[in-house]
């Protein structure tokens, strides 16, 4: 599992972005890819999968 921090998350629209701890790259995350509720600033673990516009974070959970 990769580790990162939630940079932005919009509860109303159900999406946001995670910054990877090591590479500092941003990954899109949708509420359907979360195993629990996340908020801006949360430290999370996640996996990556190929989406329509690049890599998306899935199986996202707080640590």
Automatic annotation (TrEMBL):
Keyword annotations from UniProtKB, A to Z: Cytoplasm
Gene3D superfamilies for this protein: Nucleic acid-binding proteins
Keyword Metal-binding tagged: no
Domain CSD: 1-62
GO molecular function: nucleic acid binding
UniProt main location, coarse: cytoplasm
Subcellular location: Cytoplasm
SMART domains for this protein: CSP
A single cellular component GO annotation: cytosol
Pfam family, one: CSD
Keyword RNA-binding in record: no
Highest taxon of the lineage: Bacteria
Stretches that traverse the bilayer: none
Name assigned to this protein: Cold-shock protein
Gene source species: Persicobacter diffluens
Taxonomic lineage of the native organism: Bacteria, Pseudomonadati, Bacteroidota, Cytophagia, Cytophagales
């Amino acid at each position: 599992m990769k580790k990162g921090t939630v940079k932005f998350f919009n509860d109303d629209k159900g999406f946001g972005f995670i910054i990877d701890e090591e590479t500092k790259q941003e990954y899109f995350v949708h509420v359907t890819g979360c195993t629990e509720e996340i908020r801006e600033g949360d430290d999370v673990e996640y996996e990556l999968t190929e989406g329509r516009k690049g890599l998306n974070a899935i199986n996202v959970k707080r640590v």
